[in-house]
Amino acid sequence: MSAVAEKVAGKKVCAVNSEPPVEREQLPMEVMFEIERHLIREARLLDEERIRYWYENYLTEDIVYSMPINVSRYRREQTRPLPGTNPGAGAFMDNYELIGMRITRLETGLVWMEDPQNAIRRFLTNIDAEYLEDGSGDVIAYSNFTVYRNRRQRDQNITYGQKVDLLRKVDGKWRCYNRTIHMDQRVILDKNVYFFL
Amino acid sequence: MKDVSALIQENGAVQDRSIYWDDDIYLLEQERIFARAWLFLTHESQIPLPGDFIATRMGEDEVIVTRHTDGSLKAFLNSCSHRGNQICYSEMGNSKSFTCAYHGWSFGTDGKLINVPLENETYYNNIDKNRFDLRQVAQIDSYHGLIFATFDPTAPPLMDFLGDMAWYMDAFMDVPGGTELLGPPMKSILDCNWKVPVENFIGDGYHVGWAHAAALDAIQSPLTSMKGNAPGYEPKTSGIQVATEGGHGMGIIWDAAAALHVNPAYGEWIDYRTEMVREKRGEWGAKLYNGHWDASIFPNCSFLYGTNTFKHWQPAGPRSIEVFTWTLVEKEMPEELKQYLSVMNMMTFGTAGMLETDDGENMEGCTGTNKGWVTRQGKVYSGMGQINEGPHDELPGIVSDGIVCETSYRGFYRAWADMMSGKSWEEMSRGGSRRSIKEVA
After folding, report:
1. Hey, which residues 323-352 in chain B have their CB within 8 Å of chain A?
2. Sheet holding B146-150, edge to edge
3. Interface check B371 vs A, CB under 8 A
4. Chain B residue numbers touching A194 (CB-CB < 8 A)
5. Residue B184 sits in a domain of what CATH number?
6. pTM (predicted TM-score)
7. Is B340 found in the same domain as B200?
8. Total structural domains in chain B?
9. What is the ipTM score, two decimals?
């Protein structure tokens, strides 16, 4: 019997998400406020191209900054291991050093496609944050984003997705030590994703 | 439509700009190139078990590629033989069958029609199911794990189609334990004609220092010396460019396999393996293995050996492509090295890659300007290096000095012109772009 026929016959082959969310300690109002403003200010600094400042003040040196591939498979196979030995496919999986290289490239002034300057505008919404369940005092923050890019005369693109951040307080300031960016696209429809989120 | 035989001139050195823009030329390419040539599908490691499948395209034709229950490879159209609906929307997985979402017709992993709902009640058992098997490719085969197929039953076997290209690629494909493409691939869109990235990868050593100046500066590897194409850089002595029969080709920089890497682990691996390759394939084999390659396999698949990126440029209309990007590794590499190479492939030639973004912009620019009617009446030029190329004493193909020339561009466009003119495989082998280069000598 085919999988479709099994479903039709009433056999439960797959279902929408039935897992309850992880129970985590909630943030007091002032910490929630700090996290929200932190993420929003970060987006403004990036919009203003203050990338080196962002690099030095918003990230930790052990950061993992990644955009994994969202493989489009049937629900019944979502959790099946992928074939082959790939330790992880994505659009990027950067450490602190690699992010630094990306920034250095932009700073050379030799990136022809960034001249004239592109307009990039980031919109963050649906910010939600909780304490991580490991008791470290670190915070997991979810946010939805819209990125509007406009280039040259008529070249424009809008991309949607979600950021999942792990933030820790270093010398009284929040810094991100893990950022996973989920694009709501299997095929990246913009010509590239060489920008920071 | 313009006269097809006039689109490519001067032995492949001049292209009519309409070939990057016109709808009718694109439609003819689908018929005469993509429905005839061997096309890359995937790597065997992506479908290791019976029932494993991937969904991809051959030209604009949607296909499903499977490992059948008997272990053989199959590829067939991903379109129901009843009313034509697309059958499989999952890009990969494992399944005993493929069932159409419209009326529930079901097909086996070999594309055979196995179930028609209400067959007795509606067709009164009067349907010949054999008539409705999904259309198979004419031939399917693999070369060291890379799976190719063709819709043309008259096409030569895969190894003949690859010809001398396979001899060159053996240097790094035929290693102990074999090679692998790490997938699933990244996928992205570029608004360019499919031939632009193919020609870039097949033989554009010229743009490296200029288009990628910023990336070469930021990565600070041995290749940084190419930055800006500045005086002092000697492209002539740095490597070779090769056009093999059938429109394949490559540029190779000697002693540079690991040259775009900052982590010494990959260079150490290459050094260790070079000795093994030398024992098996001699001095040229070792030199090829330890070189950095930019290459394309006719018609629409490319790779950079050394930077470990493998590309499939899927045409999606005359002015758009879908780019599939895999990481090319040796199976016996340690896990950490594969991880590092995967990360660096994303970093350099992924859709957020430091070099890919430079190229994508230029590829779109080379296509988009042809929207102008006057512009489109013009030509573009790939005549570099015609005076220092020819048959080589020891290597197959037309070989030129240095990687900065356009020898392999011309080979690609000679093959393109031959196929577009509708020549038979026999005609192309006898006097055309598929004749052995040794005969030319």
Report:
1. 327, 331, 335, 338-339, 342-343, 346-347, 350-352
2. B39-43, B146-150, B139-143
3. no
4. 352-354, 357
5. 3.90.380.10
6. 0.94
7. yes
8. 2
9. 0.91
